Amino acid sequence: MTELLLLFCAYLIGSVPTAVWVSKGVFGMDIREYGSGNAGATNTFRVLGPKAGSFVMLVDMLKGVMAVRLAYLVGYYQNPEHLTEVTTQLVNFQIGLGLAAVLGHIFPIWANFRGGKGIATLFGLVLAIQPLVAICCVGVFLLSLSLTRYVSLSSILSSIAFPILILYIFNEPEVFYRIFAIAVALMVVLTHQKNIFRLINGNESKVPLFRNRRDKK
Asked: Membrane spanning segments where (predicted)?
């Protein structure tokens, strides 16, 4: 019963519609009516600029971190280091909590169930469970973003790097975590199909990270 309650709490945390509240509260508009129509960091970057986009991304990441940390409210999981079985169950439960938050982000109860794609919240999930893997994924994301200025492409590449890191670089032993990593990459690619087509056609929007005189003309 406690686990189910915490899963619901994780969903509520994920449901906080950061992009919607920022766009309405600060800019007087609903981000879902502009750009791609998604209430996430990528569309916020595209429509409202890097400052608003960075803030939304940070808060959406923290939603994943907070959801995963809920696992430690269960006494059974508080000291798992010496018990392999408990460690496995902890990781599985943390992934479940993180996925509940991602579900909340995609279908937020506080915003008529119209949210974003959950990439930043997924990253927060990984950051809370395995920080070094998350940092490597951030490196891939930032390198791609600095070279291309495509948030969508950077998200796709960093998500593909995730299972590669888990399976081959860090050789994560937890089977469910390995399956989860592969599923994340597939999910991100599938949810970015429109972005992929726009990238192929050359009409995907870039974020204005490095404005220069040519950009301003």
From this structure: 52-74, 95-113, 119-143, 150-169, 175-191
